[in-house]
C-alpha cells in the first residue's frame, strides 16, 4: 500500500514538474553545475567552522573514554574500536580534525574534559542533571539501559529483590549512583572496570551487577552461568560531554551528529556492532 502511494505521488510530481518546466524559462546553468557550486559553499563553510573551533591540541579532536565498555569502546589488539570510536572518527572527519583517543578510568573522563586535557568524553556516558553542572552534553546519539546481571540460578528475579544483596557496579557510573542511592553505599561494591565487577559476580563475591545493557550482553556471552534480568533498572540517553566554555565545539559536534543521523551513518555504525532483536 505504502509503495503504491509513493508511486502515485511520484507520478503526480513528475507531471507537475513537467508543467513547471514548460512554463518556466530554461535555467541559465545546468543543474549539476549548480549543485557543485552549492557543495563548494558548504565545504567552505565547514572549513570556516573548523577554523573557529578551539581544541586542546590544534587540529586534533581528543576523545576521553574508558575502553572496557563493549560494543561502544574496547580494544582490538592495540586499537580502540567500537560504536563511540567510529562515531568520533566520523565527527572528527566532518570537522576536519584528526581523532586521538585517550583511555582512562570512567570516573576520570569528566575531569579530563573540564581540566582541558580532552575535548570531549565519549564513553556510553549517560546524560544526568548532576553531570550537567560540570559539563555540557551534545544531543543524544543512543539509548542505554541499566541492566541487572545475576548468576543463572540466582533467587534475584527483579530489581526489588536487590534489597540487602551485594551489588557490584563500575565506579562513578549511573549504576553506581542509582544503586548507592536506592540500596545503600554499604551494599554496593565499586570496581574500576565493568569486567572486574563481572569477575566478582562469577566468583561469588557479589550477588548481582548493575551495568549498561550492551556491555552486559557481551559479558554474559563471554562468561558461562550468567543471565540478564528481564526487568530494566533505568533507561537513559548517551551523549558526548564537552567543556562548558567550549560552546563552539558543542555546536560543531551537534551539527556533525545531525548530519550523521540524517545520512544514515549513525545507524550503519550502530548496526555493525548491535544486531537488531
Ligand atoms: N552509562 C553509564 C554512565 O554514564 C556507564 C558508562 C560507562 O561505564 N562507560 O554512567
Question: What does the model show?
Answer:
It is a single chain. The protein has 277 residues and is of the alpha/beta class. It has three domains: 2-52, no CATH class; 60-141 and 239-273, D-Maltodextrin-Binding Protein, domain 2 (3-Layer(aba) Sandwich); 144-236, D-Maltodextrin-Binding Protein, domain 2 (3-Layer(aba) Sandwich), CATH 3.40.190. The chain has ten helices and 14 strands. Strands 8, 9, 10, 11, 12 and 13 form a six-stranded mixed beta sheet that branches. Strands 5-1-6-14-7 form a five-stranded mixed beta sheet. Helix 6 links the parallel strand 9 and strand 10. The longest helix has 22 residues, at 2-23. The structure holds glutamine. Residues 66, 69, 106, 123-126, 144, 170, 173-174, 194, 212 line the site of glutamine (GLN).
Number of helices: 10
Which consecutive residue ranges, at least 5 long each, have pLDDT under 50?
1-30
The ordered H/E elements are HHEEEEHEHEHEEEHEHEHEEEHH
Largest sheet: 6 strands, mixed
Derived structural class: alpha/beta
* CATH architecture level-2 label of the largest domain: 3-Layer(aba) Sandwich
Cα(first) to Cα(last) distance is 26 Å
Give the number of domains.
Answer: 3
Q: What would the principal axes of the Cα set say about the shape?
A: elongated
What would the average pLDDT be, to the nearest integer?
87
Give the fraction of residues assigned to helices: 40-55%
What is the CATH class name of the largest domain?
Alpha Beta
Gyration radius, rounded = 24 Å
What binds here, in terms of ligands, is:
glutamine
Strand proportion: 15-25%
Could you tell me the CATH topology label of the largest domain: D-Maltodextrin-Binding Protein, domain 2
Number of DSSP E strands: 14
